[in-house]
Amino acid sequence: MDIPPEIITNILYRLLAKSLGRFRCVSKSWQAQLSEPQFIKYHQNTVNRNPLICASFCSSLYSLPCNQLEENPKKLSSELPRPDIFVFLGSCNGLVLSFVEDFVNAHSLVVFNPTTTKFVELPESGYEMVNKLLEIDTMYGFGYDVLNDYYKVVTISYFHYNYMHPPDNMFVHIYSLRNNTWKCGIDSPYDHSHGRSLHGVFVDGFLHWIANKVSNRVPVIVAFNLADETFSEVPLPNLDGHVDIMSKSSCKLVVYGEELGLFMEDRVWLMNEYGVRESWSEILIHGLHEIPMIERKIFCEDRKLLLVSSGLIWIYDVEEGSFCRTINISRNVTGLTVKGGYVESLVSPKFGETN
């Protein structure tokens, strides 16, 4: 059949990333078209699924679509180096940042695409060697600099001289996937040492952490602009009374759709218009106190909240205001735990290289 090229392209835009990866083998013209950066960017905003990435006791990685939780998890054919320990550190446009380690303590940072199984192992940044006599804590973030078309890894590291006093410096290092190099950034003017080492949350071109102001120890949401590599603050919602979010062990930043969220105790606050304090809205999670929330992970899918508790996922219907069902994700894979979420895409972690 003589089908016009624009109709074929329109159909391809609506197919899952996994299928498009296979269709690159159809012909040289399809291979070229499906590898074009503009096609990949446009395709990211179509019908791709948002799976959870899980790990088993034997350190194998699995994918589980959020909208098909009843299905059996699918094992990812990944060849990541040092796969014995896998720590999820964030995701952006289908790429996942992870810390991987083997049982002899060899470790590295890796950016990989679970859909295409391509990955890059990051070189050492060098900051770990500054002083071996002091304990070093590091917080990670991963996101996309839309202004310069860069994917960047950001680390905030600090030395513990005394846990009773805040560290003197918050060292910032930035890695660019385009240049495959690390560089020193401007030190963070905030104290991240009580942020419980949670990874940064990427929304609207910014990475976000909860930290303290150095001057008065007031907790704030800190935003790091990936384009100009500067820090700023995002206004908190108007919480009842004088709530110290830093003292709440359950408090963490999350992403709800494309909105920044604050998950604390039995509610989620959503910033409907980025940077505007008045735009925060509240979702009260009824019945949450009856669930043993061990891992405190939360995801969203189609106006539903997915809350992880050990090997169970509790699904909360926001519109109905109640939990609608529970899924046992480890029913067929022993010891399966949720590590994080990502979106299926064709984006390559190797800049300038097609998958």
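the 2nd protein, sequnce then structure:
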Amino acid sequence: MDPRGWSVWLKVDVLLLIAIQLRTEAMVITSSGPQTIQKAEGETVNLGCTYTPGAEDKGDLDIEWSSVSPDMTQKDKLILSYTVDQIHHYDPDLSKRINLLTDPKQGDASISISAVRASDTGTYQCKIKKAPGVDMRKVTLVVQVPPSVPKCWVEGGEEKGATVSLRCKSSKGSIPLTYVWKRETGGAMPTTATQDAQTGELLIKNHTEGNTGTYVCEAKNGVGEAQCKYTLHAYNPTDKVGVIVGAVIGALLLLLLLLFLIWLLVCCCHKKRYQKEAANEIREDAPAPESRPSSRLSSFRSVTGYNTHQGLQYTSVGGHLSSINESGPINPAGSNAPSTVGDRAAPLKYDHQYGYAV
């Protein structure tokens, strides 16, 4: 081989040895756990971060745990730090749920998060600094919600010869959420049955008596599972024509009943109106009450327009107003006008119907 080639290879080996030597003497995080951890909501998770400082790392120990932003243009969020035997929390939501597992000076900067929530899902970074050494590690936490107890029901009917649809659905649960139907009693799953693991639907075509029994639906995801049961029956087909005829007859009877009630209401209103009009006619035909003598005389005076004058004497109504006597002359035109003496007023006749003289 060319001596120049040997020289190049020798330089490369020397550089590799130097790099390995420097790497073994520098700060190294030794945690080898999974990079992605799945936990159910409410559980406690441990995020490992063990380390080994290099021989030249003599500075103060500085530990930082931060939540890595999914947006590379945004800054990471510091949640916990350890410096000179002091622990600092920066996230109020995590301050009561996050703690260091042991004394970090012993080579373990791992943390635990209790009662994890779906909002805790994310990537966390552990950074260890001990000048001049520094190293970091990232771990992803996925918090999932276990499926709630699903609801099992049949959509449509359970008639023989028809297609039966069994449904299953959980109201809560992190995706991906899958559904599996199994037959618990009655034998194996019908050969005409097909199911959809995503929607939770079990279709049984050409339903027969042999398909009856108890069916179990199991909903599950990466952190839990739950199930429900449904007992399937097989009924004879209903007489659809009879049902339709019965519905039409019932609607007609209801309409007739409604019309009858309206007719009764109208008759009742007419009857009340007639009774009211009859009562008004009776009151109009009733005779007027007779007036008192004094009121009759007052009425006579108001109707005839006569006022009481000096020298005139009026007879009472009881005497049928037979005469009006003059006690002296009346000179309406003044002292120069001639006066008539001896003139008498025409006699008046008393009318019993009106109560005064006319």
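Residues 240-285 form the longest helix (46 residues). DSSP finds three helices and 22 strands in the chain.
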